[in-house]
């Protein structure tokens, strides 16, 4: 018997998403949005392999990081406006065609199919959906909390299974100390066998030890170390001497 073979029942469970591949009928990169975005075009040419654990997409506004996270989340089966696989709430359809037509998910063997998509701009409608459709007993009174408090309450009630978590700029609602709390939550998810894909502008969040960082920009997607991120370099320069920046804006 091959010493490297073992029955499927004894194989280690893989990560929820091994890779994302372009569909056979996906359009050629270029042309109309979103295929015109360099990072999206790269995914449509090459696909993207996801490491187990935590992957951050870091880039400027309009670089395509949120479009990619949304496309992967919806292709996985999550609600385009946030929530789990079972969540069904909608305000206005704005998602790109990436998820429905252009991307295919390569799932891990025996992987947990639970997932959750957290996106800052649709959380108000998602809180209303949870109030109308409680699934885990009485829900926290999200609408009576501050933006940051409601995010932290959601982390406590929904980020508790080792599934696939997609987050789109979660730091938008969080203070510095609350962002540190999010780091602890994401680390726990990864340690328990879950997987995280997160678009972020936060140098604090992207500093999570052991995370894979992909910098998104005119070049497409490229792996980079935290200290080499343009985002980190700009923040360091600003905090060292903010007047160098503000005087050009206020003159």
Could you characterize the architecture of this molecule?
- The chain is α/β, with parallel strands linked by helices and 251 residues long.
- It has one domain (11-226): P-loop containing nucleotide triphosphate hydrolases (Rossmann fold, 3-Layer(aba) Sandwich).
- The protein is 35% helix and 19% strand.
- It contains nine helices and ten strands.
- The chain has helices at 38-46, 65-76, 98-102, 123-132, 147-158, 176-191, 203-206, 230-240, 243-250, and strands spanning 17-22, 48-49, 53-59, 83-84, 103-107, 115-119, 164-168, 195-200, 212-217, 220-223.
- The protein has a seven-stranded mixed β-sheet with strand order 4-6-7-8-3-9-10. Strands 2-1-5 form a three-stranded antiparallel β-sheet.
- The radius of gyration is 19 Å and the shape is globular.
